[in-house]
UniProtKB/TrEMBL annotation:
Top-level taxonomic group: Bacteria
InterPro entries reported for this sequence: Quino_amine_DH_bsu
Organism field: Paenibacillus elgii
Record's keyword terms, sorted: Membrane, Transmembrane, Transmembrane helix
Protein name: Uncharacterized protein
Residue ranges crossing the lipid bilayer per the database entry: 12-35
SUPFAM superfamilies, per the entry: YVTN repeat-like/Quinoprotein amine dehydrogenase (SSF50969)
Length: 538
């Protein structure tokens, strides 16, 4: 699979992606999850959770089986495919798409699809795995979970894709009926054999009218042996797939709190959890080992933390104290008037600190990191209030400089802005972005950086979800409000070489999913069955 760098711009600090050799810079990780934006709403309060357990039940000598053999009543998933401009659309008859993920081969997209019905024997619900690729006419599917006699939300809220073991097998959580109990499992599914294999029994709950706990998040660790699960019974915990050992690593994390954040870097197996915005007592989590600690609790001021896109360092923007005027609330987001940036390793140990003089009227935040050059991209700005279109005063960042910080010496050097990036070479290029407007979800400043001559070019358009293909010298920008995709390059970012307008195609999920060949997948909810789109961006 070609190296594809996809960035979700959901924080004030966005990304800086380098492409020279193995250079990879970034301020956010692919796959990051934020519970204060679009989270599953909690259904169980902390007082309802069960006593802590020490182990999940390992399924000894598990048998692989086909789900449809155990519970009948649902026909095969029906997919109707039709051509659209620069791609195709697939309608999932009477199905609801829950999530999507690209398989490791970069050719196949996986979807979890739910169907429900009510008959003489009561209600039942089924979730199918649907996999297909834009370059194949085939759409294959098989059931992975079923439940009867209870609300369909129980199955939806408990079935989560954890990750791929290989290109043909994935791990997921689910729940099933066994007598008068609901039993929560970690399963392994083979797309090649269309069979499910139970790995762990997480816990059981009697179907006695109590609200069934939801699985809020589940991610497979890079070692393929440990899984992080956050649910409304055990909170944030890790499980060993071989021994069943459970480690509850963050206390009182069963229920989603207003304003909390939960950032995961699945490819590194680490994460950051905070009960509130800008709090220094956030948790560092390693679900390879089940370890957790609070490495930044000694900070006297506000802390705004993240992980770089290369999964090499943790960073946080900090303030000297906790004065309320340092966190300016906009209509959509709160912007932090940070005085400096702390770089730490993936275990939370401090490496280098960058700062402006105390009392400075300007502010400094993280823009990205180069492991190869041991260099940090820093964004220097002022926070100002500007008139918004609705007559209110919007909080915005006004850029005063972009800088490179040397991780060895701690020195900072300004970059020079250019209007025509002519003669740039791909090996020297990097891309950076920061969100700048407290009243907008998309307003961002995006820059292309020439690391060799220390210059940068500021992009003319504003989007929040770029994709970088370094080997092909391509950058794809998704303009969500305008429903367009722009295609540019790292070496000539002042030129737009192609564009796709998709205003007539609507969708609900905010994440793009990409496959080889510049294929983009999105989906849209519809009464007769959700619609899946594949667009090719040339």
């Amino acid at each position: 699979m070609k190296r594809i760098i996809e960035v979700l711009g959901k924080r004030e600090n966005a990304i800086f992606l380098g492409v020279g050799g193995v250079l990879l810079l970034g301020g956010l990780v692919w796959g990051a999850m934020f519970w204060n934006a679009g989270a599953v709403q909690p259904s169980v309060s902390p007082s309802q959770t069960e006593p802590p357990g020490e182990k999940a039940k390992v399924i000894s000598d598990p048998d692989a089986y086909r789900i449809q053999d155990s519970v009948s009543g649902f026909s095969a998933l029906e997919i109707v495919r039709s051509k659209i401009n620069k791609g195709f659309m697939a309608t999932v008859k009477q199905g609801r798409v829950l999530e999507q993920a690209a398989a490791p081969d970069g050719v196949t997209m996986l979807y979890l699809v739910q169907r429900s019905k009510t008959g003489d024997s009561g209600s039942s619900s089924q979730i199918d795995a649907l996999w297909m690729g834009p370059q194949s006419e085939l759409a294959e599917s098989a059931p992975i979970a079923q439940i009867t006699g209870t609300d369909e939300d129980v199955l939806r809220r408990s079935t989560r894709l954890c990750g791929f073991m290989n290109k043909d097998e994935f791990v997921y959580t689910t729940v099933k009926n066994e007598g008068n109990e609901l039993v929560y499992y970690l399963n392994r599914f083979s797309m090649k054999q269309r069979t499910a294999t139970p790995l762990l029994e997480l816990y059981r709950q009697e179907s006695n009218g109590r609200t069934a706990p939801a699985v809020l998040e589940a991610k497979l660790a890079p070692d393929k042996r440990h899984v992080l699960v956050r649910d409304e019974r055990s909170g944030i915990a890790t499980y060993d797939l071989k021994t069943g050992a459970q480690a509850r690593i963050v206390p009182a994390s069963e229920a989603v709190r207003a304003g909390e954040s939960f950032l995961l870097a699945p490819e590194a197996g680490v994460g950051l959890y905070a009960t509130g915005r800008f709090q220094g007592d956030l948790w560092w989590i390693d679900w390879n080992t089940g370890g957790a600690r609070q490495p930044f609790a000694a900070e006297p001021g506000f802390v705004d933390a993240g992980i770089d896109a290369g999964r090499k360092v943790i960073y946080y923007n900090w303030t000297h104290d906790r004065k309320p005027e340092l966190a300016l609330a906009g209509n959509k987001r709160t912007l932090l008037a940070s005085s400096g940036v702390q770089i730490a390793d993936l275990k939370g140990n401090p490496i280098k600190r960058f700062s402006l003089p105390k009392g400075s009227k300007e502010h400094l935040e993280f823009g990205g990191y180069s492991e190869e050059r041991k260099t940090v991209l820093l964004h220097q700005f002022q926070l100002v209030r500007a008139a918004a279109t609705d007559g209110t005063a919007a909080v915005v960042k006004k850029t005063t400089a972009w800088l490179l910080g040397d991780l060895k010496t701690g020195t900072m050097q300004s970059l020079q802005q250019v209007e025509v990036p002519d003669g740039w070479e791909l090996k020297d290029m990097a891309f950076g972005s920061v969100l700048t407007d407290g009243g907008s979800e998309t307003a961002a400043e995006q820059v292309f950086v020439n690391m060799q001559d220390r210059t940068y070019y500021r992009a003319k358009w504003k989007t929040k979800q770029p994709m970088v293909l370094p080997e092909e010298d391509l950058v794809l920008f998704a303009d969500e409000p305008g429903k367009r995709v722009f295609v540019s390059s790292l070496t000539r970012p002042d030129l737009v070489v192609a564009a796709l307008n998709y205003k007539k195609y609507n969708w609900d999920n905010q994440e793009f999913a990409w496959l080889n060949g510049h294929w983009m997948s999105r989906y849209h909810k519809a009464a007769d069955g959700d619609k899946i789109y594949f667009f090719q961006i040339n």
